[in-house]
Amino acid sequence: MGKPCRSRELRYMDKFPLTTKRLVLGHVSVCQGCCCGNTANGKPAVPVEWLKKEWRARGLLKRIQLTISGCLGPCDIPNVVTISNESGTQWLGGITEFRQYRALLEWAIASRDAGELLPLPSQFREQCLHPFCNSDSGGGLFLFSGNRVIS
Question: Quick one: which H or E segment has residue 128?
């Protein structure tokens, strides 16, 4: 069930004044703020309860943290998700179909089992989002590097 983070934990203890016993491979934040998931305003639903139940049932929380957040912005794009690790943050937007949330869950399971964040499934290429003014700043993590794709 994934590789332990022990060597990483020791390395970080010298760099940061605060440490945690709960080092994770990554952190997935799912927006359910003013717009995302607001079906009363005609926005697509976010399957929050399903995500929390499945993340817990699959034992993912201690390896890939899931946070259902308030507004992540930008509010003109529905259903925003961020995926973060020590390298940065990958933003996704327009996650509007249940199959996309299922694919995120399957990716998280495979990443946990591999002991590292794996590239996202290719279906998320069209959902990549760069919400910052400087478009030359990269705009994401390693998640789509090479041809390595989880199907």
Answer: strand 128-129
Collect all residues with Cβ–Cβ distance below 8 Å to 119 and sequence separation of at least 6.
Answer: 142, 143, 144, 145, 146, 148, 149, 150
| Coil, strand or helix at 55 | helix
pTM here is 0.81
User: Has residue 144 been placed in a domain?
Assistant: no
8 Å CB contact between 48 and 30? yes
Q: What is the CATH number of the domain that holds 84?
A: 3.40.30.10
Structure-derived torsion over alpha carbons of residues 132, 137, 151, 148, reported in degrees to the nearest 10: 180
When divided into structural domains, the chain yields a total of 1
Q: What is the pLDDT of residue 13?
A: 58
Domain range for 58 is 24-129
Tens digit of each residue's pLDDT (9 = 90 or more) over 71-128 = 998 989 999 999 999 889 999 999 999 999 999 999 999 999 999 999 999 999 999 9
Considering the domain boundaries, does residue 56 fall inside one? yes
In a domain, 6, yes or no: no
Please report whether residue 148 resides in a domain. Answer: no
